[in-house]
Design a protein that fits this description.
Elements (H helix, E strand, L loop, with lengths): L1 H25 L14 E4 L2 E4 H4 E7 L2 E6 L5 H10 L7 E2 L4 E4 L5 H38 L5 H34 L2
Antiparallel strand pairs: 1-2, 3-4, 4-6, 5-6
Helix pairs in contact: 1-4, 1-5, 4-5
Length: 185
């Protein structure tokens, strides 16, 4: 019975890790990466729509993204959405497509981005520890209701702690990798 319940909490922890990975993808590392557009929605006929759903995104060179909308009338909306985002890049509109040129990162900007990814990682760890806390509370209630024994409760607590530790280590590995990427661009 406990193993099935572990799966639920394990899945929640994996989702927390995936969320941190998406946050990392949105941090630009001086190279053009279409993932930086994932959080930007365009007002397309009154509906907030992700850029990737209304345009093709290409990378003609390592420092540039070209966004070509399938509907030319969406060009201004896409440009406006990028300008209003926290991307920090001014789009160039040539009438057919929008070009985003990613400047070389300064040392100061790299350090800011490293702080930002540390914050994302810490938020992920907090989420994982909250999942552990919820799991332990659930198992304690089950033990009080005589659904599991005290020994099973101890085992469940130990297993949840191991799952939490493993998930946090995975986040640390991801953080180190992203930090290395940011500092070596």
């Amino acid at each position: 019975m406990l193993k099935d319940e572990y799966k639920v909490y394990e899945e929640k922890m994996k989702k927390s890790i995936e969320s941190v990975i998406r946050d990392f993808d949105a941090v630009r590392a001086g190279r053009a990466n279409a993932a930086v557009l994932n959080r930007i929605s365009v007002d397309y006929y009154g509906t907030p729509t992700p850029i990737q759903q209304i345009a093709s995104v290409g990378t003609p060179d390592p420092r540039q993204l070209v966004i070509t909308p399938w509907d030319a009338s969406a060009l201004k909306s896409i440009e406006k959405a990028i300008q209003e985002s926290d991307l920090g890049i001014n789009p160039q509109n040539d009438g057919k497509a929008i070009r985003l040129t990613f400047p070389q990162l300064t040392e100061e900007r790299r350090k800011e981005l490293v702080k930002q990814i540390h914050k994302y990682t810490e938020n992920g760890k907090v989420a994982i520890r909250n999942i552990r806390r919820d799991a332990v509370e659930h198992f304690k209630k089950a033990q009080k209701a005589s659904e599991i024994t005290e020994d099973e409760l101890k085992i469940a607590e130990k297993d949840m702690q191991k799952l939490t530790d493993d998930s946090c280590k995975e986040l640390d590995v991801l953080l180190a990798s992203k930090e290395k990427e940011l500092m070596s661009v």
